[in-house]
Amino acid sequence: DAKTTQPPSMDCAEGRAANLPCNHSTISGNEYVYWYRQIHSQGPQYIIHGLKNNETNEMASLIITEDRKSSTLILPHATLRDTAVYYCIVFRAAGNKLTFGGGTRVLVKP
Amino acid sequence: KAGVTQTPRYLIKTRGQQVTLSCSPISGHRSVSWYQQTPGQGLQFLFEYFSETQRNKGNFPGRFSGRQFSNSRSEMNVSTLELGDSALYLCASRPGTSGGYNTGELFFGEGSRLTVL
After folding, report:
1. Residues of B in contact with A93 (CB under 8 A)
2. Is the CB of residue A76 less than 8 Å away from at least one CB of chain B?
């Protein structure tokens, strides 16, 4: 599976959009981009995933660049409960495991 | 629908002992994966079971083993515990397929926090 690079931490103001970048320059054509988050002392929670097109659900939006070498997770209106570690993962559809990197520690401030 | 249930939530063992952790997946899910999370190494894949068969294994010593039962419930066992085995052990389930496309959407439990003294 391709590796991902994320900033180790970022702060965000409550009520504002949080834009979390992820670099995956070695991604292959059959690999998806998945995002998870882990709130302190809980198991990781699936957020969203995509292959080529931008995706949106009730939690977030995922913007994937045309060359697929990077993506951005957008939390449209961050709340204090969005404080968590966010993981960007490249996953091969026929694969059987998720490879977690270091993630981005997001702190939402009032 | 009940989520993934892991037991026990917390446990303390001493070096040399062995431990068994249990995971009940979401009803209907046939795939169960186990992950270890430590401050130093982060989240690392241990193994995955599907229909009672281990089909993928991470880079862990043989002291770490697991099994899956016919009702998809899974257990993992760590023998001859070492201090470095102190970690949060996470179980995750998904519907699973016998081959081809597998979703990367895993449903994680709250984890079992093991402390080895």
Report:
1. 100-102, 104
2. no
* Pairwise CB contact (< 8 Å): B4 & A43: yes
Verify whether the Cβ–Cβ distance A43 to B58 is below 8 Å.
no
Work out the burial of residue B25: count CB atoms within 10 Å of its CB; fewer than 13 is exposed, 13-18 middle, 19 or more buried: buried
CA diameter of chain B: 43
Task: Answer whether B45 sits within 8 Å of A98, measured CB to CB.
Answer: yes
Is A32–B104 a contact, with Cβ atoms under 8 angstroms apart? yes
CB pairs under 8 A between A and B: 58
User: Are residues A93 and A8 in contact, defined by beta-carbon separation less than 8 angstroms?
Assistant: no
Tokens of A103: 């993630």
- Distance between CA atoms of B2 and B51, rounded to whole angstroms? 20
Distance from CA of B56 to the nearest CA of A (A): 7
Where do the DSSP E strands lie in chain B? 5-7, 10-13, 19-24, 31-38, 42-50, 53-57, 64-68, 74-78, 87-94, 107-108, 112-116
- Tens digit of each residue's pLDDT (9 = 90 or more) over B57-108: 999 999 999 999 999 999 999 999 999 999 999 999 998 776 656 788 999 9
Tell me the pLDDT tens digit for each residue of B23-34.
999 999 999 999
Structure token digits, residue A38: 């882990």
**Cβ contact, residue pair B105, A99, below 8 Å:** no
Per-residue pLDDT of A23-74, as tens digits, reads: 999 998 888 999 999 998 899 999 999 999 899 999 999 999 999 999 999 9
